[in-house]
Design a protein that fits this description.
Elements (H helix, E strand, L loop, with lengths): L4 H37 L18 H5 L54 E5 L6 H11 L4 E6 L8 E4 L4 H11 L4 E3 L9 E5 L6
Parallel strand pairs: 1-2, 1-5, 3-4
Antiparallel strand pairs: 3-5
């Protein structure tokens, strides 16, 4: 027994409606799925680019920046050149002590003849005429001899005695006569002149 023609038409219409609904649903799913992916693609992903963690070490950026060179000052003018050695080699050091340096010799004071005090010459030896011969030598050197005689007493060495203020004159007279000793005048000597006492050590 065959179905009537109207029932077949209704079945086909139902199938077409179901297929249409499925197509619409599938299209909506594709559309919403695509829009969802597009919307998340515009947002930054936190897992793909982690933020750098701060470290306790120095920054490599700051270290790479060159520092300005300080300008030279005038103090460098006083520095010694560093091209040569700053100290003598130890192999050349001498173990011997350096020689002693003598102070520069000073010129003796020369007193003009008109400013020299008078002098008295005394002989304290057994040699006769010693005081007179030395007195002659003093006169030739430009000295005024006020007297020559013998001396009684004990004298350590030939000496030129001088009163206060006449040290330079005594030193010059001692050089002129070849006497190596000067000393302040004794109480029993005159205070306005030099006194020369010759002992046995005198070889002039």
């Amino acid at each position: 027994m065959s179905r009537p023609k109207d029932d077949r038409g209704q079945v086909l219409s139902s199938l077409v409606a179901v297929v249409a609904v499925v197509a619409i649903v599938a299209g909506l799913l594709v559309l919403f799925g695509t829009r969802g992916n597009d919307s998340t693609a515009d947002e930054p992903s936190g897992a793909s680019t982690p933020a750098p963690k701060p470290t306790g070490g120095p920054s490599t950026v700051g270290a790479s920046v060159p520092r300005p060179t300080p300008t030279p000052t005038t103090e460098t003018e006083t520095e010694q050149p560093t091209s040569g050695p700053t100290s003598a080699p130890t192999s050349e050091a001498s173990t011997e002590p350096p020689p002693a340096t003598q102070p520069p010799a000073t010129e003796p004071t020369t007193i003009p003849a008109d400013r020299r005090p008078a002098a008295e010459i005394y002989n304290n030896t057994a040699r006769k005429g010693l005081a007179d011969s030395v007195a002659g030598r003093a006169r030739q050197a430009g000295w005024t001899v006020a007297g020559a005689d013998n001396w009684r007493g004990k004298v350590a060495a030939s000496t030129v005695y001088y009163p206060p203020g006449m040290l330079d004159a005594a030193n010059q007279l001692a050089r002129d006569l070849g006497i190596g000793r000067t000393k302040g005048a004794l109480d029993n000597m005159k205070k306005d002149r030099l006194t020369v006492i010759l002992t046995s050590d005198y070889t002039g």
